[in-house]
Design goal:
Layout (H helix, E strand, L loop, with lengths): L1 H33 L3 H6 L4 H7 L16 H9 L25 H19 L4 H16 L3 H12 L3 H13 L6 H10 L3 H11 L5 H12 L5 H13 L3 H13 L4 H14 L5 H8 L5 H14 L5 H9 L5 H15 L2
Helix pairs in contact: 3-4, 5-6, 5-7, 7-8, 8-10, 9-10, 10-12, 11-12, 12-13, 12-14, 13-14, 15-16, 16-18, 17-18
Amino acid sequence: MSRVVWALVLVVVLALCLATGRALWNAMAVRDTDVDTAESRLARQSSQNAVAQRGHQPNVSASSPDLPRGGVGAAAEDTGGLASLNVVAPAAPPATSTVTSRQPASVIQVVAGRFRRYLELTKAADRPEQSEQARELVQDLRAMGVAPASVLLDLLLTATDLEDRRAAARLLGALQAAEAVPAFKHILETGDDVVLRRDVAFGLQQLQTPDAIALMEQLVANSAEDNVVRLSAASGLAQMGRAEGVTVLTEIFQGATSDGRARAIAFRELSSLNDERTVPFMRQVVTSQVEPAYRLQAIRYLSAQGDRQALDALQTVIQSPTEQPSIRSAANLAYTVINGR
């Protein structure tokens, strides 16, 4: 009788173990199904994105110097598509120069993880240590070669999340990915989202290829263009020593009296040049009727430059009985510094 009891107990224990094992297996499967990080989504995006993109491919001949055979759509097909953090095919994808998205899933996962980290860091860029970490992350991506640019270009062109596309544009600029110029040009010429276009222009200003320069010249020449887009293009040109960049920055500052943001950006970019090209502009600001903060910065700029031609303007400010004490004091200090050199 005891043997029968023990046999029944053994059967019950085995049944419980089997049921527990099945429950654990199912829980692991559910967990694996539920985990949907940016990395895994980028690596396993379904073929529907590639199919959608093929339906929108431009008619480019095999001899075209701008597009590898198959273009963006064919590249996405090899990787299961990039940026499956919600994607759609662009209305008319541009030629993408030498870029190909044929990257191993492991590479895509690495880039995706660093991209997400970049998003986190740049959202808190007011903290110096995080800004430094963002710069280090860019260096890490740059060391990977062309792979990050390939992944980010597909993200820029196919993601439906606006924040992802904006960050991809900025990061492509930070990586100085010259292959992004055709995609930037496409968005700037056809895109209707001004926020995205501003980030694309910011990315563009960090590139120094002939195609990038030509596109920036096109943007600054269009007076109907958004001020912030023109500012980025003008800044890029000015940083490369091109006179039209300084001219447009000055024009925007003087003309954007109702656009405080554009005015502030223009002045900041002019101040960052830190050379003689900006000196005539700063002399005008010293005696103008603009906001006191700009006049104070202009006085300090001229003092740092040691501009002796600014002495007359500074003297005028010092002797003005209606001038604000802070402005007059700053002018007096600058006059002393410059005159003592």
